[in-house]
Amino acid sequence: MELDLNREIGIIGYGAYIPLYRIKDEEIGRVWGRRAGFPVEEKAVAGLDEDVVTMAIEASLNALKRAQINPKELGAVLVGTESKPYAVKPSGTIVAEAIGATPATLSADYEFACKAGTEALQTCIALVKSGMCKYALAIGGDTAQGRPSDELEYTAASGAAAYIVGPKDEALATFEASFSYVTDTPDFWRRQVQPYPKHTGRFTGEPAYFKHIISAAKMLFEKYSFSPEDFDYAVFHQPNLKFPIRVAKKLGFPMEKIKPGLVVGSIGNTYAGSSLIGLAATLDVAKPGQRILVVSFGSGAGSDAFSLVVEEAIEVKRDRAPGVVDYIERKRYVDYATYARFRGKILR
Amino acid sequence: MVHIIGYGCTPVKEHWDKGIRELAFEAALKALEKAGIDKVDALVVGNMSSGVLAGQEHLGALIADELGMSGISALKVEAACASGGAAVHSAYAMVKSGAYKRVLVVGVEKMTDKLTPQVTSALAMAEDQRFTVSPTGVSFVALNALLHRLYMERYGVKPEEVAAFAVNDHKHAVNSPHAQYRNEITVEQVMKSPMVADPIHLLESSPIGDGAAAVVLSSEPEGDSSVEIAASVAATDVFCLFSREDMLSLRATVLAAKKAYEQAKISPEDVDVLEVHDAFSILGAIALEDLGFAERGQGAKMAYEGETLIGGKLPTNTFGGLKARGHPVGATGVYQIVELCMQLSNEAGKNQVPDANVGLAQNVGGVGGTVVIHVLRGV
């Protein structure tokens, strides 16, 4: 799927949320007998009273602060996640109600592993572009699950980001184009009633993450005659520190272009929140006129690629809410036992 | 005499987009093209674990059909990691007996569809489940670790000397077009790599990979073929490792080597190029001793001093061996034959051993339960 957006619509407000608690990979390794080669430094841990819904609400309130609109004008509230508190019963309606967007609105939950958030964003773009609503809210977030001792446990983290899509004249960044690329690639999955996902080890790399991100980005480039030099920043899905750095190199982006959005080392992989929190961190520092590439990745598998241009409004809207760095620096370390309690890993 | 009239192989790597069919097809086609033929009288497939790792058995008929040859005689031969060598040995006997004129051998293994723990369990099936694996929970690498430790203690050998085998393999693999790892490594890197089963480091262990290799055997020298099989011998040892008189000698290698030298009418000094089954570096050292190239306890030193490098006294594993070319288990024995053919036909490129005329390949199943030895001669 592709869409030529011609900067007619854009992001009029964005917000991120990262929980207070952190656990170091070293601490997880202490329990499981691993001493080196950790995929990230530390990861964000949701507290006892947090879930995807509460984090989505926090992120949405930040987005609303920046957008300065009446939440009643939101024509859609879409939540992308793979950690729904309820298997049946939308998370989106709870968020919509909490932020004051109900009842004259559309709401649904999206699932596409780690790209559910950008999937929701794609839909919001379509709703606004078609004129079905003036504003639409897309949220990506997870309290990601990783089986104790599994490689995923060292990265699976909690966090969310929210984006309000609206008309160009209010936008802090406008969309130029988007391109989606999917195949049936079973690299990672969680079946009904299973608590933790399964993955296929090294198969999740080359044939899954790299193939889909590179294909989506290259097809976007080809279609709209872009090259890496045209972009000031790039944000890729961040399952660990290694993958986004390597994919940037393969596509021809130097380290300095991905650095502002590369947050995985200090918060872990927030799954559906990952690329969207990376984009928020990039918007926190970007200047008007700069161009940003975002490419998500969701197992199963697929990638959404977006090209955005930062607009003048960023300068006034940016400081209306806390930045990603503020959340990264606001932290309290917990040990493995506390983390296990918070994340419900101890059966009672 | 049995002649090798065609040979070919796929690169060894993580072939994410290829299964057993595609890999076998690719290698077989290369061998048939080289032989300049499109038909054979029989097919022998060497494979260890397609049932456990790919959920597929009955590979003979499957690959024959894939090659458009359904109708011919086709079967699979299994002897753990020696499946490839055993397949060549079976095909040799089929041609030598006069029952078939041309036989295609395909060694193939698809390993990367399963995760490491599943592959580890599959490989442990090569050892005695009742008396070794079940009562102790030992893995295949742990068994080799026992040999490695005993070897160092008995002969006063340093860990660095054993590691040299892996270092030499990687040096050769740099110019090996089908090798899985084409980078050089140092003894220091081996010593610093993670311990898999003490004292075996990660860089002393062969990797998991996919691949297929094929050769065409014929009762006549056909086309521009220039290699003949001077000896083909398979031997077995007491199955359970712990029941053997001496764990540091693979009796099957000693038995098979003695017969192979007699069959080929050569002695160890006549061998110009060697392929040994170094699934773990320690097995390479022991192989040099069992084959008569080194005194007991001197095998590792021979590698450490560079005698097994191209340009040394006995160029060994000239395309990377199991450590760097890779070890798609059931295909490995056929890869060894393909590589010797390349050397004896003067097609080894930058790794060509000058004037190579006699090549020997040792392929091991389990920790020596089966050993297959082939001696090839350039003609």
Mean pLDDT of chain B: 96
Sequence of strands across the biggest β-sheet of chain B: 3-2-4-7-1-8-11-10-9
User: Could you tell me the strand content of chain B as a percent range?
Assistant: 15-25%
- Helix coverage percent of residues of chain B? 25-40%
Which homologous superfamily in CATH is the superfamily of the largest domain in chain A?
A: Thiolase/Chalcone synthase
CATH fold name of the largest domain in chain A: Peroxisomal Thiolase, Chain A, domain 1
What percent of the residues of chain A sit in helical stretches (DSSP H or I)?
A: 25-40%
Outline the biggest β-sheet of chain B.
9 strands, mixed
Based on helices, strands and strand pairing, what is the structural class of chain A? Answer: alpha/beta
| Rough outline of chain A | globular
- SSE sequence of chain B, one letter per element: EHEHHEHEHHHHHEEEEHEHHHHEE
N-to-C CA distance of chain B = 12 Å
CATH architecture descriptor text of the largest domain in chain A: 3-Layer(aba) Sandwich
**Unreliable stretches of chain A, pLDDT < 50, 5 or more residues?**
none
Descriptive notes:
Chain A has 348 residues and is α/β, with parallel strands linked by helices. Chain A folds into 2 domains: 8-172 and 323-336, 3-Layer(aba) Sandwich (Peroxisomal Thiolase, Chain A, domain 1), CATH 3.40.47; 173-315, Peroxisomal Thiolase, Chain A, domain 1, CATH 3.40.47. Chain A has 12 helices and 15 strands. In chain A, the strands form 3 sheets. In chain A, strands 1, 2, 5, 6, 7, 8, 9, 12, 13 and 14 form a 10-stranded mixed beta sheet that branches. A 3-stranded mixed beta sheet of chain A has the order 4-3-15. In chain A, strand 13 (291-295) and strand 14 form a beta hairpin. In chain A, helix 2 crosses helix 3 and helix 5 runs parallel beside helix 6. The radius of gyration of chain A is 18 Å and the shape is globular. Chain B has 379 residues and is of the alpha/beta class. Chain B has helices spanning 20-35, 50-54, 59-66, 83-96, 116-124, 129-136, 140-155, 159-173, 187-192, 251-264, 281-290, 299-304, 321-325, 329-344, and strands spanning 2-9, 42-46, 73-77, 102-109, 195-197, 200-201, 211-218, 227-236, 273-275, 358-365, 370-378. In chain B, a hairpin with a 2-residue loop joins strand 5 and strand 6. The longest helix of chain B has 16 residues, at 20-35. Chain B is globular. The mean pLDDT of chain B is 96. At the A-B interface, loops of A face loops of B.
